[in-house]
């Protein structure tokens, strides 16, 4: 048994003098343990000591500065991860995994997964389903997590030592994206919670992560891990708080997502972030927003506990005393990825009739709904509406055919099909869907088009109309309207 206290003391002394060499430390420890034992002890203690291991085996201090936005814009799933997926498929079925009975079985599972998601059926992951999930979903989920984390790094809210809980980690898309998003000098204590056969795939893909991305896979349900099962205590891993809790495309699969997410808030550090994202389709996106609203303090609608959590982004509440009650279907869109080889192979080997189109097993669209919650009250932008300057969207009915000023969060890209540009917006008070409709772009309202998803804009002199067909309010932006970007 090595003297861990002595290892820590020596490391703390040397950190300010020179790189920490396990062989050197071994000489100062009673019994002169083997350097390999010292190295492994340092790896286990590295997170608490804020040390990272270099490629040469020495340990050096982690920088105190937070993670900077890395300019995340992946064009494809990295080759190493694509190779790992194919490696699993070849091991299971052989080199022609995409053909014959094995190809048919995988395609059938992918079809079943897509159907279950569409109709909100319970999804069960056996080994074959996990492989199908990796083929179809891994690339887009890999890309999604980085775009969401940009909201935090732009304000310096992710530290270079990061303790992460990935609830429902699946086959590892969010984990791999997080790994590549963070700088090489970050140290991560990563905990995955996944009860299904997806861990077979997850374990293989996590082998591709670096030496300072230390992983632990808990083969348990989220309820069991967080201590929600009757008579069961939470996993000891929850004794130390997490800086980042991820719910990547999993809330819609939980029996009680509000209870699980609420328990995850208890496991969150005071300055940590709960990050949830979901596919952009209506059911899962609205379901995510429903969970968000149940967790935020002040909702009081009986749907959930109403925690001391606040929305950091993107669906900011610009009126502090307001609570939205619209459906909340909102999602972001990023650039498509290149088609990975394993998707192309499975798709090209499909037997199709004359009317069947290729691409059934290609999924490289990066479209996602997301929510970031924090307990410290911080928001992505610190902006609030003023009754002296703005109308509330909750009161749009009384302003129909009037021109008003609005403070709004842009909650979509252009939803039109080539006609007048159409953007979903909210201010945190809305009970009905609201859209900004640009019928004539000018230099004074161009900010509406140029503003990114989640940006806050001030709309001056917009014309409020009721759209009977859509059951929504359209605020017309024309040559009499000014739109200013308040916060990007």
UniProtKB/TrEMBL annotation:
Pfam families assigned: DUF8157 (PF26486), DUF8157_C (PF26487), Methyltransf_12 (PF08242)
Superkingdom as given in the UniProt entry: Archaea
Protein name: Methyltransferase type 12
Record's keyword annotation contains Cell membrane: no
GO terms under biological process: methylation
Domain DUF8157, residue spans: 4-55, 394-485
Species annotation: Halorubrum distributum JCM 9100
UniProt KW keywords: Methyltransferase, Transferase
One example GO MF annotation: methyltransferase activity
UniProt key word Transferase: yes
Methyltransferase type domain mapped to chain residues: 165-274
């Amino acid at each position: 048994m090595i003297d861990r206290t002595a290892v820590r003391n020596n490391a703390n002394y040397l950190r300010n003098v020179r790189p920490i060499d396990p062989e050197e430390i071994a000489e100062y420890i009673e019994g002169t343990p083997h350097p390999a034992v010292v190295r492994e002890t340092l790896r286990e203690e590295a997170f608490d000591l804020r040390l990272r291991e270099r490629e040469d085996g020495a340990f050096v201090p982690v920088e105190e500065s937070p993670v900077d936005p890395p300019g995340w814009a992946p064009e494809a799933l990295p080759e190493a991860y694509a190779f790992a997926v194919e490696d699993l498929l070849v091991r299971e079925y052989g080199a022609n995994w995409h053909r014959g009975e094995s190809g048919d079985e995988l395609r059938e599972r992918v079809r079943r997964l897509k159907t279950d998601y569409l109709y909100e059926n319970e999804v069960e992951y056996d080994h074959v389903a996990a492989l199908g999930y990796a083929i179809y979903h891994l690339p887009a989920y890999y890309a999604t997590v980085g775009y969401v984390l940009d909201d935090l790094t732009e304000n310096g809210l992710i530290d270079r030592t990061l303790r992460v809980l990935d609830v429902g980690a699946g086959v590892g898309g969010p984990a791999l994206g997080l790994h590549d998003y963070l700088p090489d000098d970050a140290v991560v204590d990563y905990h995955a919670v996944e009860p299904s056969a997806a861990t077979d795939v997850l374990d293989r893909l996590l082998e591709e992560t670096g030496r300072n991305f230390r992983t632990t896979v808990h083969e348990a349900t989220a309820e069991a891990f967080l201590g929600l099962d009757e008579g069961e205590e939470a996993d000891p891993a929850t004794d130390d708080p997490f800086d980042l809790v991820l719910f990547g495309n999993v809330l819609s699969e939980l029996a009680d997502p509000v209870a699980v997410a609420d328990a995850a808030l208890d496991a969150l550090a005071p300055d940590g972030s709960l990050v949830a994202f979901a596919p952009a389709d209506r059911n899962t996106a609205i379901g995510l927003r429903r969970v968000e609203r149940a967790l935020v303090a002040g909702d009081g609608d009986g749907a959930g506990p109403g925690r001391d959590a606040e929305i950091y982004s993107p669906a900011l509440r610009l009126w502090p005393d307001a609570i939205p009650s619209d459906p909340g279907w909102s999602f972001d869109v990023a650039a498509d990825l290149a088609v990975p080889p394993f998707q192309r192979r499975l798709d090209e080997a499909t037997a199709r009739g004359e009317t069947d189109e290729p691409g059934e097993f290609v999924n490289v669209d990066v479209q996602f709904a997301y929510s970031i919650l924090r307990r410290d009250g911080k928001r992505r932008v610190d902006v609030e509406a003023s009754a002296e300057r703005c109308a509330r969207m909750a009161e749009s009915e009384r302003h129909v055919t009037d021109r008003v000023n609005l403070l709004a969060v842009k909650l979509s890209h252009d939803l039109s099909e080539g006609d007048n540009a159409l953007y979903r917006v909210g201010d945190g008070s809305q009970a009905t869907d609201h859209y900004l409709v640009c019928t004539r772009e000018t230099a004074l309202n161009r900010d509406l088009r140029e503003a990114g998803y989640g940006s806050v804009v001030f709309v001056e002199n917009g014309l409020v109309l009721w759209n009977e067909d859509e059951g929504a309010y359209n605020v017309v932006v024309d040559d009499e309207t000014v739109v200013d970007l308040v916060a990007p």
